[in-house]
């Protein structure tokens, strides 16, 4: 079931909210929690009921192991061995469903064999709920988890706003909210803020991401078919996809936070204007924040982080980014994308070291140097997205060949591309406040303060004055945006969010 579908917006979400609060206001908190778990499982099974068993097995197995690691159950005395077993089972599940065919195809290519597996359908959300539970096991092993009921654990994993594509949530971020009795009572502020954020996300997805997608898809399709793209076509196509992915993921993140907020639950911030980043380091603090934090805390730091010399630091960084690329998809284009960002990060760290050597204060910069950093970072990210989007390396190379002018610098195009739309969306990305900035006075998400960092001067003052308030004008404005998005949903086929594929 898609967030941008009539089934979700008009039936599932209203009914789930209504019954949840009707049960909660009578004081039946466990029943209300069970209702939310049941509807979340129904939400997941809507796509493919056969994979509901996989999710239930994952829930039972990880709760059992986590309980043992918390020493609430003492079946095994060797906690470290139990942790390794728990992580291995989780990785085995994701490895089979996501990477088995990729592994077999590469073995066949190297050894000239003909091993074959039947087509394996990737279960929705497996990357997200698996990583979330691996983090839970590690935290349980380190004694950082508290005792919660199995029902609350199920809600922690399956809560439908974040089940399919994140954010990757830690137990310490939401478990305490689930046992807070106030969330079971209808709250007008939570509902108003939640609906506003949800409709903003819906508008980003339907009105912006799906609109710009029609300019990106033909360009990459032409490159895959061997067409010689012009300089203009290649760059416009790459920019269009960069904007499609931006608004698609930003829209999903807003809709997830908004849907959760309607229930009085605050999810962690997962998207913070990444195209305003002044460096690649800054970009990864803003793009898919919860995945970046997971890779840092549970991979980069355990590998040694930056504690064992510069060479080891950069090696750890590259390993982390390569695996981060592989997490996004079973293909060499994703691995290369991760390696490219690893290279970017190493160069960025080296550049920062050089600046410190010259005595520069990295915390203070001029407006022109910030904008230069934004443009350079954005260009590097756009180049990397070519590998992320391309079906294979040949297509990516064909795109980059045209982007560097190897096919000439013609500014003509035989493909349906509207440069005005691309330019207008770029200006929106760079000049307008993000959702967290606009609703900052109402604490829209956990760590919402991240949404206002790096904003200063007249722009900070201006957007503070224009921050969202529950007035008739803002209600009508957001309602109009939502109405326009729903009208467009009537006329076009619902499209999946891009991160559903990961």
Brief characterization of the structure:
The chain is mainly α.
Query: Based on helices, strands and strand pairing, what is the structural class?
Result: mainly alpha
* Largest pleated sheet: none
DSSP helix fraction: 55-70%
Assess the beta-strand content as a share of residues: under 5%
Rg from alpha-carbon coordinates: 23 Å
**Roughly what is the average pLDDT, rounded to an integer?**
89
Query: Helix count?
Result: 20
- How far apart are the first and last residues' alpha carbons, in Å? 16 Å
Number of strands: 0
Oligomer category: single chain
Question: Which sequence of SSEs, written as H and E, runs from N to C?
Answer: HHHHHHHHHHHHHHHHHHHH
Outline type: globular
Low-confidence stretches at least 5 residues in length (pLDDT < 50)? 451-455
């Amino acid at each position: 079931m898609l967030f941008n579908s009539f089934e979700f917006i008009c039936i599932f979400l209203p009914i789930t909210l209504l019954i949840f609060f009707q049960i909660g206001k009578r004081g039946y908190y466990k029943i209300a929690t069970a209702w939310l778990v049941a509807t979340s499982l129904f939400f997941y099974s809507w796509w493919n009921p056969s994979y509901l068993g996989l999710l239930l097995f994952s829930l039972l197995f990880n709760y059992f192991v986590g309980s043992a690691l918390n020493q609430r159950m003492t079946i095994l005395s060797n906690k470290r061995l139990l942790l390794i077993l728990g992580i291995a089972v989780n990785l085995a599940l994701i490895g089979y469903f996501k990477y088995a065919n990729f592994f077999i195809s590469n073995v066949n290519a190297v050894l000239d064999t003909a091993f074959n597996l039947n087509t394996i359908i990737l279960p929705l959300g497996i990357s997200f709920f698996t990583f979330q539970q691996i983090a839970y096991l590690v935290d349980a092993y380190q004694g950082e988890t508290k005792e919660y009921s199995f029902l609350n654990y199920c809600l922690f994993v399956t809560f439908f706003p974040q089940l399919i594509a994140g954010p990757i949530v830690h137990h310490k971020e939401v478990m305490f909210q689930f046992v807070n009795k106030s969330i079971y009572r209808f709250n007008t502020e939570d509902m108003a803020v939640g609906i506003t954020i949800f409709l903003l996300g819906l508008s980003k997805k339907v009105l912006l991401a799906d609109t710009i997608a029609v300019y990106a898809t033909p360009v990459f399709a032409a490159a895959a078919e061997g067409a010689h793209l012009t300089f203009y076509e290649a760059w416009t196509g790459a920019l269009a996809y960069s904007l499609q992915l931006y608004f698609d993921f930003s829209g999903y993140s807003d809709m997830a936070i908004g849907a959760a907020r309607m229930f009085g639950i605050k999810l962690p911030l997962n998207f913070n204007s990444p195209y305003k980043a002044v460096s690649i380091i800054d970009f990864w603090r803003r793009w898919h924040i919860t995945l970046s934090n997971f890779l840092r805390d549970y991979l980069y730091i355990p590998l040694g982080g930056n504690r064992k010399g510069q060479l080891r630091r950069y090696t750890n960084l590259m390993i982390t980014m390569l695996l981060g690329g592989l997490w996004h998809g079973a293909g060499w284009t994703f691995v290369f994308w991760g390696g490219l960002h690893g290279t970017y990060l190493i160069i960025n760290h080296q550049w920062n070291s050089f600046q410190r050597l010259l005595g520069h204060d990295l915390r203070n910069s001029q407006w022109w140097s910030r904008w230069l950093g934004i443009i350079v970072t954005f260009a590097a990210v756009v180049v990397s997205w070519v590998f992320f989007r391309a079906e294979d390396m040949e297509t990516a190379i064909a795109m980059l060949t045209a982007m560097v002018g190897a096919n000439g610098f013609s500014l003509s195009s035989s493909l349906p591309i509207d440069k005005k739309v691309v330019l207008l969306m770029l200006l929106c990305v760079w000049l307008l406040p993000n959702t967290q900035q606009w609703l900052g006075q109402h604490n829209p998400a956990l760590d919402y303060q991240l949404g206002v960092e790096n904003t200063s001067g007249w722009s900070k003052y201006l957007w503070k004055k224009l921050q969202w308030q529950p007035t008739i004008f803002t209600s009508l404005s957001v309602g109009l945006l939502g109405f326009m998005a729903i009208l467009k949903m009537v006329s076009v086929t619902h499209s999946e969010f891009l991160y559903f594929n990961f």
